Amino acid sequence: xxxxxxxxxxxxxxxxxxxxxxxxxxxxxxxxxxxxxxxxxxxxxxxxxxxxxxxxxxxxxxxxxxxxxxxxxxxxxxxxxxxxxxxxxxxxxxxxxxxxxxxxxxxxxxxxxxxxxxxxxxxxxxxxxxxxxxxxxxxxxxxxxxxxxxxxxxxxxxxxxxxxxxxxxxxxxxxxxxxxxxxxxxxxxxxxxxxxxxxxxxxxxxxxxxxxxxxxxxxxxxxxxxxxxxxxxxxxxxxxxxxxxxxxxxxxxxxxxxxxxxxxxxxx
Length: 268
Known about the structure:
- This protein has about 270 residues and is of the alpha+beta class.
- It has helices at about 35-50, 55-65, 70-80, 115, 210-225, 240-250, 255-265; strands at about 5-10, 15-25, 25-35, 90, 95-100, 105-110, 120-125, 125-130, 135-140, 155, 170, 180-185, 185-195, 200-205.
- Among the domains are: about 1-75, 2-Layer Sandwich (GCC-box Binding Domain); about 180-265, no CATH class.
- It has 7 helices and 14 strands.
- A 3-stranded antiparallel beta sheet has the order 1-2-3, covered by helices on one side. A 3-stranded antiparallel beta sheet has the order 4-5-6.
């Protein structure tokens, strides 16, 4: 066998080749390949990264042909920082980069390193998510941002960089379902709408908390009138159960909204 190559066999008897390299006393798997030559080329590329000229990561992302880009990031980070991380992370002084592709570099706070070193980020339909406890979880939930929130309306990036997910760069505008902050004559108010047959405006409220409760109560009325829809619930963690119940009971829902429900869905 060529250096760095090991022959292996699948359950059906098919032969394939594994490539490995040892650096700083760590044995690193480079992947599986169909031919001995490809496995050897992967070994040579890894050896070039780890022991050759000290080129920056960007050089190897576009100059390597056999190794997967995720493995390239892990190897360059190991070379430069002497910490091997299986996910495509490169460490900087006060933050780290997570490469979703050679052209997609996301920045995170160093406090999140342990989490993302064991959770792979994926992207589908423009949304970033990861698997946790067997479920796909939206990455935005780690910032208290709800599912299907819209950038620029519900949250924003302080420095304008949509790849910068450091906590100081994430501005949460609208934390709750059905609640949108609006500014009129220098005063911020919170509009509430419920989506039934299109968006139905419930009202405008002085605080975000009251608006979130108003949405919950409007959704409860809709369910009571037989609207067949699973309305998400706003959880207001800063309120005790007694405080929430008091505000909920005191909050009035407009007669116009109740009449709309009655006219379209009958008596509750």
